[in-house]
Design a protein that fits this description.
By secondary structure, the chain is α/β, with parallel strands linked by helices. A hairpin with a 6-residue loop joins strand 3 and strand 4. The strands form 3 sheets. The protein has a 5-stranded parallel β-sheet with strand order 2-5-6-1-7, sandwiched between helices. A two-stranded antiparallel ribbon has the order 3-4. Strands 8-9 form a two-stranded antiparallel ribbon. The protein has 3 domains: about 200 residues, P-loop containing nucleotide triphosphate hydrolases (Rossmann fold, 3-Layer(aba) Sandwich), CATH 3.40.50.300; about 60 residues; about 80 residues, Orthogonal Bundle (Arc Repressor Mutant, subunit A).
Length: about 350
Amino acid sequence: MNGAFSIYPRPGLARHYLDRLLTSPNRALSVFGPRQVGKTTLLQHDLAALAEREGIAALYVDFMASSNALELLNARLAQLVHEARMGLSKRRVKAAKAAGFGIDLEPAPSDPVSADPGVQLQNAFSTLNRLRPGVQLLLMLDEAQELVRQQEGERTMKAIRALFNTFQGQLLLLITGSSREGLLRLFGDRHRASFGLADHEDFQRLGRDFVEAKAAAFNKQRRQPIEIDTLYTAFQAMEHRPADFIAYLSFLAINEVRDVVGSVQVFLQTRYPTEAVRERFLRFTPLQRTVLTLLAEGPCQVASKATMDRVARELGAPVTAGGIRHALTSLPADVIANPARGHYEIVDAQLLAWLREADRE
C-alpha cells in the first residue's frame, strides 16, 4: 500500500496553468475548487517544481494561515529574498588580504525599508529582482476568499494589484480559493480593488486515472480485485477527495466489505466523527441552523415568503430576507457557497450528510 500514499503527479494540469499565465502575463488567473480536492498539492508540488525547472521563482501563500494577509505575504516574500541572497555563490571580492590568508567582501547594499506594508512588498520584489536580475515570480495565493472576510483584506488586495501592475510581465499571479462566492465577490465587485483582475477557471478534479493508479497496488494484494468502475463510483461518492480515497483503500484492506460504494458513508462517519460535526453545527446561531436544515432538504429560495414563513415558525420569531442572507454569509467559507444570485448550497459534505440523516437528534 506504500505506493498509494505517494503524491499523484499532474504535470499536464501544472503545464496548463503555467502556460496560461505565461501567455497572458498581464492577467491573473483565479481558480475555484472545493477543499481537499488536491489544489494545494498541485500548487506546492507540480506547479512550483515546473516553474523552478523553467527558471521561474515560485512562492506559495495560504491566507488561512494568518488573520493579517498582507503581513503574511510580506514575510513569505522576505523569506524568498533571503533564500536568493544565501544562494549567491559569492560576493564580489573587494580586496585580498596580505599573504592571501583572507579576503574582504564588498558589503551588500542595504535593502530599502518602508513602514507601509504595501510599499514594503514592492521593495522586497525590487530586491529580489536585484539579486536575480529579470526574475519572473509565480505568486500562488491560496484561500483568497479570506481577503473578503478579513478586516485588512481590501488593503492587501490593493497592495497585490499595485505589485502586479508595477512588475507586469515579471509577476505571474495565480489566485485560488475554496469558496466560489468569495472569489466572485473578490473579482466581480466593481467597488473592490481586485475587480476585473483575473480570469476564472474551475479546478479540474482528479478522475478515473487517479483511481486506477492508486488502486493498482491495492488490488495486487487482494485475492479478488475490486473493479475500477466500482472504486471510481466510491471516489465520486466522496466528492473526488484524494486523501479520503486513499484512506478508504486502507479501510477496505482491513475490513470485510461487501458493498464497496454503500460503505463509503460508514467509512466517512469513522473518519469524520458525527459528534464533531454536531458540535460544530450547534455553535452556529439558531437562525443559521434553521436555514442550513432547510437547505439540506433541497434547493430553496432563501428570500421567498414561503421560506421566511417557515423559518419564522421554526424560530418562533419573525425574520427578514436580509437577516437570512446575513446569517448565511456569516458562515465559514467551507460550510456554504453562493454560486448564483439568490442560490445557496452546503459545501461541507460531512455536515450535509449529517443533516440528511433521518435519525439524527
